[in-house]
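Figure S4 source data
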Amino acid sequence: MSKTNESLMQRRMAAVPRGVGQIHPIFADKAANATVTDVEGREFIDFAGGIAVLNTGHLHPKVIAAVQEQLTKLTHTCFQVLAYEPYVELCEKVAARVPGDFAKKTLLVTTGSEAVENAVKIARAATGRAGVIAFTGGYHGRTMMTLGLTGKVVPYSAGMGLMPGGIFRAQYPCELHGVSTDDAIASIERIFKNDAEPRDIAAIIIEPVQGEGGFYVAPKDFMKRLRALCDQHGILLIADEVQTGAGRTGTFFAMEQMGVAADLTTFAKSIAGGFPVAGVCGKAEYMDAIAPGGLGGTYAGSPIACAAALAVMEVFEEEKLLERCKAVGERLVTGLKAIQAKHKSIGEVRALGAMIAMELCEDGDVHKPNAALTGQIVAKARDKGLILLSCGTYGNVLRVLVPLTAEDALLDKGLAIIAECFDELA
């Protein structure tokens, strides 16, 4: 009997806890570049990219070749037991890419949540302080500390009780929703007056472009003032580039466009083209604040994932993917704005590079989020062969994270499907 999505979903429901969400009731069988084929043989255009993990596309030949070669050498020793060169080389190459005119060191781990956890550990050790300031709408992971940093309770921490203390929430600047740079800075100053002295704050953590929060881009002026505020009080600035990093925004790291450098930068997702590696890169003096044995992990910086990540970096250079990112972003934004011109339900189209979002609202009022229509568009697009994702505090943002290697014809086909969905539903 041939496998079907329905039969596999039934097995999944019996075997996997309901807390593991699934956006599309589809089981993937194989993929190539920017398309995925399910177990029933149907092909889909992939505008999700594994949630920003496949900037170099599914199964990029150079990445696969690097992994295959590494498989003939070794798959695991645990770097803390027996080291291997790919780990060190990747640390060197990431440090060369991360913004900041200072000596840097890099720690490798396995997931984005781990990277953020370790960034906070490093900040606490380096400053001798414990508090952390995060932002409304921020998403930093699903571990206990990162859930505390994440600015959205449902579904991430609902029913789990209070998260770790010592975390304070400032406003993320968002002109569309009436939060100015002045408002956001004032909200930090209020924390200093009402909740915690600056000398008790180890770090301020921010996504230069919010991921789950809705793809809002931090204004450069805000980042400069945030940097100055951190310098004034001896607070470390952590840039969470788990989703923005590895070329998604048109520069390898989004902070390159913000005019300032963070003290610590987290990265993960697309850095290894679908293989699990993540890390923290920052000022050497801060990275060295923790004694030997205080950082690491059994699978941290796997040789396989390191080989993949090194290949990803070569692909970016050889295929000029940062330039391609800008072209992909411009093509998609132009197409989406043409759809917006016909539909009041699209309140805004925004992007940094190829990190693109459409915010849906009722009757053209951006203060009335339309989560229902967003869900309907995602489902209708799937029916038509396009995989989309939603996000946002109110679930009313459509996001596009298509591989940067997707051909123009495929991008146009995806845009045509989105247009059809709005014509039929909105």
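Figure S5 source data
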Amino acid sequence: MKLMLVLSVLCLLGYSLAAPQAPVEILEQEVDNIGLNGYKFSFKLSDGTTRTEEAVLNNAGTENESLSVRGSVSWVGPDGITYTINFVADENGYQPEGAHIPK
């Protein structure tokens, strides 16, 4: 009986802490798939999240063929600060740089 009461209280507590969130909508979206030579996309969401990414094929048709990707992602944290990660991914690996912008 005590176990059932404890479980009921925990379930109610968990339910009350899980605050409903507003649905996130896509405000802007662009996609350009240029085939085997690369791609590009971006989007902006109603919660402040943005993402851009572009890839190009280097040295096509050679032994040193590689894909270079550049991009950025931003989001608004629970603290109201906008966080951004800019990155490059190429033959030298993944190279991120981060920043935050106080509100």
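The beta strands are 26-33, 38-45, 50-58, 66-76, 82-90, 93-101. Confidence is low (pLDDT under 50) at residues 1-13.
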